[in-house]
Amino acid sequence: MVFAGASSALASDGEAAGAQPSTTPIAASSTLSATGTSPTPTASRTPMHTSSPSPSVDPEGAERGTALAAVAMLTFKGRAPMTGYEREEFGPAWTDVDHNGCDTRNDILKRDLVDESFKAGTQGCVVLAGTFADPYSGETIEFERGEKSSLVQIDHVVALADAWQKGAQQWDATKREAFANDPLNLLASDGSLNQSKGAGDAATWLPPNKAFRCRYVARQVAVKAHYGLWVTTAERDAMIRVLSGCPDEPLPDGVKVSTTSSSGSSSGSGTIAAPPVTVPDHNSSTEPEAPVYYANCSDVRAAGAAPLYSGDPGYRLAMDRDKDGIACE
Predict the structure, then answer these.
(1) Of 20, 71, 98, 288, which residue is least crowded by CB atoms under 10 Å?
(2) Which portions of the sequence form the region Disordered (predicted)?
(3) What pTM does this model have?
């Protein structure tokens, strides 16, 4: 993983460049207070879910379009060996895959932070500072490029090393680079929690902020289904266990379930289509309609759009302080 704004490169998923990812399951845990805030999380090396019974909910019967239903489309089998894994197999960190002039790291910082300031002369690309409502811990972090850059990192929701063991080592270099830079699979996160997660999957690591676990697992399901990555039996059971507590949890905005393959023929398990990446045509005289964007809640209220609900134009998780799906209340 690369520290947001740091000058030195780290491998994805909390591993130092060139190091082999840890095979020890790591879980982060903390207790939420009555106010919904969380103390500084502490890392635990006790694997999650190992003593829990198998889930009794059948994802086949879940409502179509939910994350729980999408779990039924995932293939499950054992991990492949880590042989050959290097961060570099997924391309350089980070690249401008959507050709908007900004690298992926700064794109995600701009998306997930509020009240940002930018480095002069970078056309609004390089984020210097901003406020970050961390979904993993439930805490607010003041990001500042430089010595404090490591406080906010960019997490691969499905870790690159985990993907490598579950199908990605068969991909070509282009697909692996696209995966590593796909906004669907990227979230800004508390740096220490990103490091504690390592290459963990849903069976070995979940965010300490329990209010965010449903959305976190739903995003993992969407990423794995979209890219055709498999899950282990323990991972599948953990996904079902989390989502059974929120059976109506939708897939991330813009991700849709299709029951036909790309060729139009019927598919036995179905596929998940991620929202297409829009690449601006700078040679065209007609600019595409810009998406609704509010820099902060003050702008939302000034536009008369408050409150914003999840799925509304302009809604961003960073403006939803208590992570209840309602921003700028």
Answers:
(1) 288
(2) 1-63, 251-287
(3) 0.65
